[in-house]
Amino acid sequence: MKFPGRRKIKHYFPVNADNRFDRESTTFGHVNTYICGIDQNMVDIYAHVDDSALADFGLTKAASQWVDIDTANRLYEFLQESGAIDNQYAGGTIGNTLHNYSILADDRSVQFGVMSQNIRVGDYAYGYLCNTSSKVDMTFLQPVEGAIGRCYTLITPDGERTFGINPGSMNDLSQAFIPEHVITGSSALVLCAYTLGDDSLPIYHATRKAAKIARENGIPVVLTLGTSMLVEKIREPLKQFIRDHVTLVAMNEEEAQALTGETDPLLACEAILDLADMLLLTAGPEGLYLCGHTETSMARETDNPIRSAGISDFNRYEFSRPLRRADCDEPMKIYSHISPYMGGPEKIRNTNGAGDGALSAVIHDIAANHFHREVLPTSGKHERPWLTYSSFSQVCKYANRVSYEVLAQSSPRLSRALPEREDSLEESYWER
């Protein structure tokens, strides 16, 4: 496992002298640690066109609209023939998260979804693969005859952007392409509420099957909420899905409000902790919140300034580590907040994917905990079935730093690991 900051090998996983592992039976690096996830595989296609092209394809300027498959195919042929395509980026919130995890951890992740069976050099499916880390295992993708999802961003000479979206076959993922052994061997299963929006689609049932397998085998289930409009549309069934299956739920402040009705992000967090064991809430320029549960008798007080908002002294125990609520004898709700790293980038190049980046950092810490528990099961770090290796406060710092990195670049996908050393990630990061 690769960890943030410059570290000596012996300090990757600090253990007490009386908790040394059996060197005859256990060695570092033998554990196959990975995460997996389901996505609606989609490509973002950027092109410069004239207003006449929008009229020719029946697109309303400056609007976001669905286009049928025939229009999507004709538009792509036109853009290719005219040389108008600038870039073709891999998209999808789970695809972004898996890619970013593999960049941060320098380790494997497994992606479930569909992919065009016939791929030509230079086409959209080829662009998707080229923009995805080689550490993302795509051997379990379901081959389809048609196109994967395509989102066209058409930029006219006045700088206005027009969006045309076609789902293609991205929702055709069959339950047969959800291998149980891959999920049960993983450190976490990552899902998105987008796939739960329509129970008539095959991907809906594939998602529920995967979640059921993970929950029955004690694998943490991570769910991102998509958009506030989607949350409002499926609020009650979504809440039930979270209660039944989800360990960690991730969202922004608008989605949190749509789910709970609370306008105060902290109060929304409090309400969501009645549904899930843990949550990540990104609140734009306010920073991010990481909240969850811990055992009351094992709560650790912070040495950071105590803060109050909708909840008094809400961060008092942010040096605690998260547990599933069911694993607590006397559960306590824990809240941690951090403002944007260095006040945020001087120039924000892209807001798309910042939440996915933050989530990938949290999942990396969950996977690191799983790795360490498998390698050193007798370590004092595992006297309880903790969800993460680090405290709420420390995971906040890591997530915040990764989010900053995404905001400072033009793509929602990290192109490199974090710098060797960051002052925000002090030497005790993995010891808190």
Shape: globular
Pick out the low-confidence regions.
1-27, 420-432
Given the structure, what is the number of helices? Answer: 12
Helix content class: 25-40%
Query: The biggest beta sheet, please?
Result: 9 strands, mixed
CATH superfamily: Ribokinase
Instruction: Report the end-to-end length measured between terminal Cα atoms.
Output: 18 Å
What is the β-strand count? 16
Mean pLDDT over the full residue set = 87
CATH class term: Alpha Beta
The domain tally reads 1
Report strand order across the widest sheet: 7-5-1-11-12-13-14-15-16
User: Structural class, please?
Assistant: alpha/beta
Write down the CATH topology: UDP-N-acetylmuramoyl-L-alanine:D-glutamate ligase
Strand content: 15-25%
GO molecular function, one term: guanosine kinase activity
Cofactor: Mg(2+)
Binding site for ATP: 282-287, 355, 400
Catalytic activity: inosine + ATP = IMP + ADP + H(+); guanosine + ATP = GMP + ADP + H(+)
List keywords for this structure.
Ribokinase-like, ATP binding, UDP-N-acetylmuramoyl-L-alanine:D-glutamate ligase, 432 residues, nine-stranded mixed sheet, disordered C terminus, inosine kinase activity, kinase, alpha/beta, five-stranded mixed sheet
